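Task: sequence design from structure.
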């Protein structure tokens, strides 16, 4: 049995039963296009990485520890995932992990430092003065 098929390019093709059965082996597999679960996961991650004040914690931000026992300790966000922020000392290499829920304006929290507040600007990757010229 043979039948005609209109292709995507507008050409008419005749197919026989033998050709049709061989084409079924190479039929494209349907890929799910539902991205609602991916969008939901991304939204959940964004919610976890947002402070009480509504600030989305991102890589490169500088936060200051408001604990009076810390002498204006400032940290730089290296990465944020699932409500946990990996930070390093602003002018150093010491690293630690901070919960995003602690990043709020309270005596035991952190506050976002505005770029204008920095005396020497944001440190670069080679802030030790050995930059190549």
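Answer:
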């Amino acid at each position: 049995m043979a039948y005609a098929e209109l292709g995507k390019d507008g050409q008419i093709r005749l197919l026989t039963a033998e050709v049709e059965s061989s084409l079924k082996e190479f039929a494209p597999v349907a890929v799910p296009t539902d991205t609602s679960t991916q969008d939901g996961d991304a939204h959940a991650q964004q919610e976890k990485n947002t402070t009480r004040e509504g600030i989305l914690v991102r890589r490169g931000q500088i936060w200051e520890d408001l604990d009076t026992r810390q002498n204006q300790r400032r940290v730089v966000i290296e990465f944020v995932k699932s409500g946990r922020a990996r930070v390093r000392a602003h002018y150093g290499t010491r690293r630690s992990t901070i919960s995003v829920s602690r990043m709020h304006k309270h005596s035991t929290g952190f506050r976002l430092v505005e770029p204008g507040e920095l005396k020497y600007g944001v440190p670069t990757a080679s802030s030790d003065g050995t930059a190549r010229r």
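The beta strands are 2-6, 12-16, 62-65, 74-81, 84-89, 95-99, 110-112.
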